[in-house]
């Protein structure tokens, strides 16, 4: 870990066993930040003092000296971002850096005491609460905050992805305005922070608490409205919140990074609330069981509780393997139903006393005649339904597989027709039959099939084309090149 000396502004590396007490800065990046290359040698430091970000570095060091500390950690200058290995190590260690700090300084560059006054608790402290059911400022109606409290709530610091773990991890945190006026500690402002973020204040905000007490869906909802400059960081910034580590691969895209994060979480958790999300795209009708971004958990802030003993699930190359209580849609023949309610193994209230309600998602069979391959349908919503359901006799626990990439198309078993003599590469016609083949992923080159004309002898050929989860059998009969070709 590389630290900055509060008096000499020199950088020094420490191994884990020798790390001294240090202060750590939590802030939002602005123009002309002091970077590693600006400060790692005396010559560059002279130039760095003329940058706008130097004032932030000096302010951090001065506060640390007042607290009797010789060292600080600031992400802008204590990480050599030219080294991908060092950057990846720092990102994977970030939560621990903040958790192990002596004190964290939260610097709000867009808050000014001389304009807004000090944030306080005169508005409506009694309206804040910290139950497992939770409160979410962007979903529930928020009490009207006035003066300094309203300005505090609007600070950019509360909208950024990385500052979520920086808020939760440290045991001691002090807020400062743009002029380094002390606004109060995380403990003093805990009720106001709860109003802004929806994060429970007496268990999480005070000392980081036991995050595993809160369901995956609830923790995801804390990040639902937060933004990052790089889309992959929406996933990377949550590793510490869930106690997992994944390689950082900038360029993979935010959706893929978030998918890898969920896959890693699943390795260590059997919390099924990870499937309680809502799609942000209204047009979508088919998905897998994993979300594409934290924003899809925006309305999942309700405090789902978990039973001590839960059924395991896992990822396989056939899809996510899981056992779920399933109930056919009303009015359908259960034995031949295609659409089901699937009850997730989490609920509202005390699991020891029995849940009265729990989250339910909709699933649909992907392949007619197959009883274990499903996809999520109507992903724009999930419902909270009573448990046990009123038609309890029709609920059956099914062992199913749900592929994550659900971009599938129907293929009839014996309905594909090829015209080998056609010169224009039009797509083949598909005849509808009652016997369906498994869905086949539609890749960039699978939307049309082009077969070049050629001469065959009188031989019957059977060709097997691998098609994802099944095979397509093509019967090729004789073809004789005509004299006109």
From TrEMBL:
Domain Heterokaryon incompatibility residues, every copy: 22-166
This protein's UniProt keywords: Membrane, Transmembrane, Transmembrane helix
Name of the protein: HET-domain-containing protein
TM regions (residue ranges): 455-474
All copies of domain DUF8212, residue ranges: 256-285
Pfam families from the UniProt entry: DUF8212, HET
């Amino acid at each position: 870990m590389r630290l900055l000396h509060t008096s000499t502004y020199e950088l020094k590396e420490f191994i884990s066993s020798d790390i001294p007490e240090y202060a750590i800065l939590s802030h939002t990046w602005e123009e002309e930040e002091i970077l590693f290359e600006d400060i790692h040698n005396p010559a560059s430091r002279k130039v760095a003092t003329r940058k706008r970000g130097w004032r932030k570095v000096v302010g951090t060091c001065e506060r640390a000296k007042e607290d009797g500390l010789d060292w600080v950690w600031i992400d802008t200058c204590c990480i050599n971002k030219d080294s991908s290995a060092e950057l990846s190590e720092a990102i994977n260690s970030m939560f621990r850096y903040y958790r192990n700090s002596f004190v964290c300084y939260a610097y709000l560059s867009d808050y000014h005491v001389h304009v807004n006054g000090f944030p306080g608790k005169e508005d409506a402290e009694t309206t804040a609460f910290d139950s497992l059911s939770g409160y979410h400022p962007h979903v529930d109606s928020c009490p009207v905050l006035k003066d300094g409290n309203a300005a505090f709530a609007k600070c950019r610091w509360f909208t950024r992805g990385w500052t979520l773990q920086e808020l939760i991890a440290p045991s001691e945190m002090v807020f400062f305005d743009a002029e380094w006026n002390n606004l109060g500690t995380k403990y003093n402002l805990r009720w106001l922070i709860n109003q802004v973020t929806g994060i429970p204040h007496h268990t999480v905000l005070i000392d980081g608490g036991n995050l595993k007490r809160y369901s995956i869906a609830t923790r995801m909802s804390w990040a639902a409205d937060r933004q990052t400059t790089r889309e992959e960081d929406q996933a990377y910034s949550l590793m510490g919140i869930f106690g997992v580590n994944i390689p950082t691969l900038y360029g993979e895209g935010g959706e893929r990074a978030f998918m890898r994060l969920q896959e890693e979480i699943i390795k260590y958790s059997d919390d099924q609330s990870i499937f309680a999300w809502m799609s942000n795209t209204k047009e979508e009708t088919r998905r897998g069981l994993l979300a594409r971004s934290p924003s899809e958990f925006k309305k999942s802030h309700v405090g789902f509780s978990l039973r001590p003993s839960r059924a395991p699930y896992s990822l396989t190359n056939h899809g996510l393997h899981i056992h779920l209580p399933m109930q056919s849609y009303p009015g359908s023949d259960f034995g031949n139903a295609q659409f089901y309610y699937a009850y997730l193994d989490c609920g509202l209230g005390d699991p020891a006393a029995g849940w009265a309600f729990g989250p339910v998602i909709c699933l649909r069979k992907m392949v007619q005649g197959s009883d274990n391959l499903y996809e999520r349908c109507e992903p724009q919503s999930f419902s909270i339904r009573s448990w046990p359901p009123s038609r309890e006799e029709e609920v059956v626990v099914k062992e199913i597989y749900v592929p994550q990439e659900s971009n599938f198309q129907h293929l009839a078993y014996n309905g594909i027709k090829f015209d080998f003599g056609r010169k224009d590469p039009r797509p083949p016609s598909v005849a509808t039959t009652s016997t369906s083949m498994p869905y086949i992923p539609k890749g960039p080159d699978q939307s049309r099939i082009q077969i070049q004309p050629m001469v065959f002898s009188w031989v019957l050929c059977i060709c097997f084309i691998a098609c994802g989860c099944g095979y397509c059998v093509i019967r090729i009969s004789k073809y004789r090149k005509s004299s006109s070709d």
